[in-house]
Amino acid sequence: MQYVGLDKQIRKNNFNSLLLLIAFPALLLGMLYALAYFLQNEHKEDPDVIFLQAMPFVLGAVGIWFLIAWAGHSAFIRMATGSKTLERMENKRVYNLLENLCISQGMTMPKLYIIEDDSLNAFASGINARSYSISLSRGIINKLDDDELEGVIAHELTHIKNKDVRLLVVSIIFVGIFAFLAEVAFRSLRHVGSGRKSKDSKGSGAIILIAIVVTAVAYFISILLRFGISRKREYLADAGSAEMTKKPYALANALRKISGDPLIEAVESRDVAQLFIDNPKPSAHKSASWDNMFATHPPIEKRIELLEQFV
Prior knowledge:
The protein has one domain. The chain is built from 11 helices and 4 strands; from the N terminus they run H-H-E-H-E-E-E-H-H-H-H-H-H-H-H. It has helices spanning about 5-45, 45-80, 90-105, 140-145, 145-160, 165-195, 200-245, 250-260, 270-275, 290-295, 300-310; strands at about 85, 110-115, 120-125, 135. Strands 1-2-4-3 form a 4-stranded mixed β-sheet, with helices on both faces. Helix 5 packs across helix 8. The chain is elongated and about 70 Å long.
């Protein structure tokens, strides 16, 4: 498999990611219209009227949710991963590697955090220069040599440079909204089902069941859209690391070591897990087509194969 030019790949991925990002609010409005269509018999109103009446409230609520998540995402991610600030005096080696790469790229140096876990993994996060950060596990710092660790840091810097982290934060927020709506609909059905049986409760149950189906379908589609964003960006970040360090073999070796022990036990959130350089969450049977459909990262063997073409 021949790898295309980096600039061309950046343009292609940025265009595809923009389309995916636009698809999230479009999917939300599509879900709202589908609910309005199914509810027209209950309310004896035109679905267009129901849709237009509900749209401002839905968009307003989603906007508030989005702003809160946008403003507090850094704190939420640190809480989810248990990461803490890595002091310069604690590990000058990591700071030197990061500083040299940032100077070579003319980039502002992101913050450094450490996750106290012996497994090997790392991720970047943030939405702007003030909040950009790179988090490394204790295991990846101790078990990789300088060239390999530099390759991993360069991979994460590429995510920051190409605004991948901002895009992923946005996708995580939108998927969280759909997950919340599906959960609310499901809990409402259980509540109705546990009450007295009457014509009203049966009617309410039917409405809620329709809401569950519609939100579940929207949630499923939003997950697939998010996975499309994650997969495409990992290939680009690997290529960017090779371009930045001129040592593609170093990242390839690092990925081999990471694949042997990538699971950070403190991280239980599937949304946060997709930020890592390798996400071991879906299943150990990565060859299965079902698992590949729901994997946020491409197979690590394929990533290594592509990196070795640079050598």
